[in-house]
Design goal:
By secondary structure, the protein is α+β, with helices and mostly antiparallel strands. About 35% of the residues lie in helices and about 20% in strands. It has 13 helices and 17 strands.
Length: about 400
């Protein structure tokens, strides 16, 4: 009797034999693929690859380190190529550490986060953000203020001013409010900015400076301006204590007893954006600052608020006895009909819409400042059709 093979029998029945499957992936390969799929999902949800940076979410930072390790290893790149729809494996490697282990616990340890026992990234729910760790470190790094007797009477006077209404407390809003002589409430304590060092620009294009901050419990801290800013923003009860300034909104001339409190600055962009190039003489950024204008615009080409380009200072106006934030709000409200509607991409490719840029001639800004001086500015609004400031009631007719 002729023997018939199993394949022949299947052929007689019209059934094609199934090809033998490739060998199953190893546990390590499955773990690498699963880890890379997390990175792909992050890219799909956020529109950019995960980035490094202490201020960023711990998950993004872990994915960024993981991606570096995958990029470093040829076998990983080969394994993951079919899954790399966004070309994530082709990017630069942030750090040169070798990638022997892709274990999430090991990667977190590299970020300064300790894990114990079996680790599941999805269960990472109690890790303190880096910003919170920094805040704790800043508190721990406070030292006794050796000359506190010099500052103690100031704290008493500020408390008396608050109780009498000479000063008010309000939510912290702007980094520009952090300056020598400024008062805050942070972590339940009054804080006095006694000194500010020279401002510098970080590698990310942000301005910062070293501060000497005195606290009402007799301690002090040599913290960075951005550290104080983070603490105030994170603290729901954080407050700015206002200056005890009375008098008109704006005084064009300084007299005895007046306090210089800032500068209005007008900038012109050197951007090569087509809209800016076509309207360069009338595209202006208008702001108010308590620092020098040179400090304010340091690193402009690295900041989206300055259109990622250098700027030219075309006008400045000194302020005396003024609430800067209120004045800036008034100016922006008056010129709002001419606000530039422009979207650019930041250094990471994300769309941003810079504010405080206006399509308005310089002589209109001069006119607005003159109306601030005589106190009539609140009744005006810019009319782009006639290119002049008009009374609000006149515009409505």
């Amino acid at each position: 009797m002729v023997e018939i093979s199993d394949d022949d029998l299947l052929a007689e029945l019209g059934v094609a034999p199934e090809a033998k499957k490739q060998g199953a992936r190893t546990a390590r390969e499955e773990r690498i693929i699963a880890g890379f799929e997390d990175i792909v999902r992050f890219r799909e949800q956020h529109g950019h690859p995960p980035r490094h940076g202490e201020a960023l979410d711990i998950f993004e930072r872990l994915y960024a380190v993981r991606l570096d390790r995958l990029r470093e290893q040829e076998d990983c790149r080969t394994l993951l190529k079919p899954f790399d729809a966004y070309g994530l494996l082709e990017g630069p490697i942030y750090s040169g550490a070798d990638g022997e282990s892709l274990d999430d616990g090991a990667l977190l340890a590299e970020l300064g986060v300790e894990s114990k026992g079996e680790f599941d990234l999805t269960e990472l729910t109690h890790v303190k953000p880096r910003a919170e760790v920094r805040t704790a470190e800043e508190v721990a790094n406070r030292t006794p203020c050796e000359d506190f007797e010099k500052f103690e009477p100031l704290f008493g006077q500020v408390q008396s001013d608050i109780e009498s209404g000479v000063r008010q407390t309000r939510p912290f809003e702007l980094k520009a409010e952090i300056r020598p002589g400024a008062w805050f409430i942070v972590g339940g304590q009054k804080a006095y900015v006694a000194e500010m060092g020279e401002q510098f620009t970080t590698e990310h294009g942000r301005t910062d400076a070293r501060l000497r901050v005195i606290f009402d419990n007799g301690t002090e801290s040599n913290m960075l301006m951005r550290s104080l800013q983070r603490s105030l923003n994170k603290d729901d009860a954080g407050r700015r204590i206002s200056d005890p300034i009375a008098g008109p909104l704006f005084s064009g001339q300084q007299t005895d007893g007046d306090t210089e409190s800032g500068t209005i600055y007008v900038l012109r962009s050197q951007s090569d954006h087509p809209v800016v190039v076509a309207n360069r003489d009338v595209v202006h950024k208008i702001g108010v600052t308590n620092m020098t204008v040179e400090q304010r615009i340091a690193g402009a080409r690295l900041q989206s608020t300055y259109l990622l380009a250098d700027v030219e200072v075309v006008a400045t106006y000194k302020l005396f006895n003024i609430n800067r934030s209120k004045l800036e709000h008034v100016l922006h409200r008056v010129l709002s009909p001419a606000r530039l509607d422009l979207t650019i991409k930041d250094r990471f490719g994300n769309p941003v819409k810079p504010e405080e840029w206006y399509l308005v001639p310089l002589h209109i800004i001069d006119d607005a400042v003159e109306k601030v001086k005589d106190g009539s500015i609140t009744g005006y609004e810019y009319d782009p059709r006639e290119a002049r400031l008009k009374l609000i009631d006149e515009r409505r007719r």
